[in-house]
Design brief:
The protein is α+β, with helices and mostly antiparallel strands. The chain has two domains: 107 residues, Outer membrane lipoprotein wza fold like (Roll); 65 residues, 2-Layer Sandwich (wza like fold). It contains four helices and ten strands. The strands form three sheets. It has a five-stranded mixed beta sheet. A three-stranded antiparallel beta sheet has the order 2-1-5, with helices on one face. A hairpin with a 3-residue loop joins strand 3 and strand 4. The two termini are 17 Å apart. The N terminus is likely disordered. This is Polysaccharide biosynthesis/export protein. GO terms for molecular function: polysaccharide transmembrane transporter activity. InterPro entries: Poly_export, Poly_export_N, Soluble_ligand-bd. It comes from Corallococcus coralloides (strain ATCC 25202 / DSM 2259 / NBRC 100086 / M2). Keywords: Signal.
Length: 189
């Protein structure tokens, strides 16, 4: 048990020195791609000079939002600009020259899940490029009983795959980084 505990603290020390273990929000590095609205995001919809139509709305699990006069409109998968244009088109019969702005207030759709033998299993926000090592650090690192060379990343991107990962390969100088995607589940046995 003393050997396992020493290994755990060595790994945690490396993660702390690399700056991973204490970051809760990671910097977005894919700024060249516009943000796509996702399910459970919260949006501020502003109609210029019409406070009755301006409101904060959640994107429902089915991907739609409800706006007076427009009704149900699909928001998931659109950029804020695309959604604003769709709302503008829906309001034109009722509002003279509508000016619509959509701002993403809360990003709740992009998450990864870390479960198993980690200190704090749960859902973590995915902000930009997040590696498997960073997700494990966000979850507080491994417990004393973790099988760090038996990690599995379950990917739910339509292809439904499982990616087996050995922690020793991740931290080796020649090891490749596993970048997580929204909806991925990391299982640490």
């Amino acid at each position: 048990m003393g050997m396992r505990r020493t290994g755990f603290w060595t790994v945690m020390g490396m993660l702390l020195l690399s700056g991973c273990a204490h970051q809760q929000t990671l910097k977005v590095d894919n700024a060249d791609q516009p943000y796509r609205i996702g399910r459970e995001d919260v949006l501020d919809v502003s109609v210029w000079r019409d406070s009755e139509l301006s409101r904060t709305v959640p994107v429902r699990p089915d991907g739609f939002i409800s706006i007076p006069m427009v009704g149900e409109i699909e928001a998931a998968g659109k950029t804020p600009t695309e959604l604003a244009e769709a709302l503008k088109s829906g309001l034109q019969p009722y509002v003279q020259e509508p000016r619509v702005t959509v701002i993403v207030r809360e990003v709740n759709s992009s998450r990864v899940f870390v479960t198993g033998e980690v200190a704090h299993p749960g859902a973590y926000p995915l902000r930009g490029r997040v590696s498997l090592l960073q997700a494990i650090a966000l979850a507080g690192g491994f417990t004393d009983f973790a099988n760090s060379d038996g990690i599995v990343v379950i990917r739910t991107d339509g292809k439904g795959g499982q990616i087996p990962v050995r922690y020793s390969d991740l931290v080796s100088p020649d090891g490749e980084s596993v970048i997580l995607r929204p909806g991925d589940t990391v299982v640490v046995p």
